[in-house]
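Thread: quick sanity check before group meeting

JM: Hey all, I'm pulling together slides for Thursday and realized we never actually wrote out the predicted structure for the chain we discussed last week. Dropping the sequence here so it's in one place. If anyone has concerns about the input, flag it before I start.
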Amino acid sequence: MQSKFKKFLSFISGISRRPSLINLVTNSNEVLKRNFLQKYPNILFLPQIEIKDLADKPLTEKIESFLLDGSSLITDLHLLMTLANRENCRSYLEIGTWRGESAYNVAKILDECVTVNLSAQEMKEMGWNPKYAEQHGILSGKNPGIQHLEANTKEFDFSSLQKKYDLIFIDGDHSYEMVLNDTRKVFTDLVHENSVVVWHDYAYNPQKVRYEVFKAILDGVGKQNLSFLYHPKNTICAVFYKGDIPSSVFDEMEMPTKIFEISVEEKSF
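JM (edit): ok, ran it. Output follows.
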């Protein structure tokens, strides 16, 4: 008991010296999970689906990735390319470009690809590392067919695009406020009856849900769309999909039933 009390006093002392540390507590995933359950007590996880069940024809294109900080999982890219490869998919829009790996890979399949991201100037004005700004779109920029729009989605009017998209990838700022903002705007201005929407970072890893993002997704899509949300297995993504598809209950300690065979080839960039 005395040891716990000393730890408590040490915690209070640390907070008094660095008040910003309180954010580490209030923003911890466990705290956010408890807040999440206050509003959604019956939705602890999304039902899971298999990526292969989303495919309607074989995917032959190779996946390319820098495999660096901020890169999507190979399975995340495989998910996007599988969806882009469907017969009824002709157009793709993504929010949040980073180095451009997702758009670059999807553009191997689709001719119409659009990305929306902050301008390098705005990133610099926000005090971000100049090298971070310089790396945005360094891969997707290699494909002149990819349209790069520079805008802050907080202010951007997506209706000005005058277009509904078949596949939409939300991968911008992952705070609750911005995921909510981007989700609401996408569902208001960009979605048609058969659109598929994918959110990145629904989970920290394929077996650990990120509740700040999860809550923003549920709050953003509206109650009428909750039954169309899924977690593709082996990814950190959530997907909005209105087609018929088999699903299973999420089990964070599920025993593996399959293994992925991946060939790696390195080349200069």
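AS: nice. The longest strand covers residues 191-199. The radius of gyration is 20 Å.
JM: adding both to the slides.
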